[in-house]
Amino acid sequence: MDLGFEDEGILRKIKCGELTDVIVVNGFLSETESDVSDWLSLLGEVYHSNTVHHFNWEASSKLKVLNDSATGDLFKAVIDLGFDGVTAKGVLSFVLSAYNVGRVPWQSAIDSSEMAGRTLARYLDKQDKQFILMGHSLGARVLYHCLKSMVSKDKVTTAILLGGAVDEETGWGELLEKHSKMSIYNCHSDNDLVLKHLYPVKDGESSPIGLKPINIDLPDRLRNIDMSIMKLGHMEYKTKNVGTLLNLHINRTDSEPYEIAVFRGGGLLGLFGLLS
């Protein structure tokens, strides 16, 4: 382990284990303490015996103004509810108007993601072991830039992208060719209001992978996991239920999709059937 990264607060070990190290990367509206707890809820179902590190990047501070504001509370409430109707969209439009005058520096975090990805790439290139990478929202964008920037091609075994704020047409085939031993799991949901309303983030980008599959026919190395039936909003990926479903996909040997029976009650989502 590169102690320099630990000393600088860039990497923080949040769980000890014996298997391949996992690095998790936060994204939009992520606050360190609560987000680590969320990650552990998910990881308890899929990588419960692994050492886990949290990669801290500039988005956390740039988005803190939203987290600390009344607008942020309202925004997160709308996201959590995941309404599809006009009322929710109207409230979301109000919140996004705050973004337009600078209270939500989404674009600034987008710009920071490339530098963060290069920083993580330099760290991984120095290591003599392999890693599993997991990124949520803009954290998935950080991972894209990391994988693109890396010199070494055998350090990452798995990349898991949750509600990714990065375009579907940005060279995923080239990344899979470069990292020839790596598998990608793209978890997406068409209930994601954040990606529907904040995209495109740059000119020429209009199809975030958090809303749709990555269109590459490599079923042994790329799996698109459609979680729309679970009614997942942008902030609802880091849960035990998602970890359970993800674990089933990682450990299965065929590429056919699961049929998922779900229910929602008392604000909680529950899986009561997972059938192949």
TrEMBL record:
Write down the InterPro entries for this protein, in alphabetical order. AB_hydrolase_fold, DUF726
Q: What membrane topology does the annotation report for this chain? A: Multi-pass membrane protein
Q: Which residues form a coiled coil?
A: none
Q: Which GO terms describe its cellular component?
A: membrane
Respond yes or no to whether keyword Nucleotide-binding is given for this record: no
Entry keyword set: Membrane, Transmembrane, Transmembrane helix
Subcellular location(s): the record lists: Membrane
Protein name per UniProt:
DUF726 domain-containing protein
Whose protein is this, by species? Vibrio parahaemolyticus
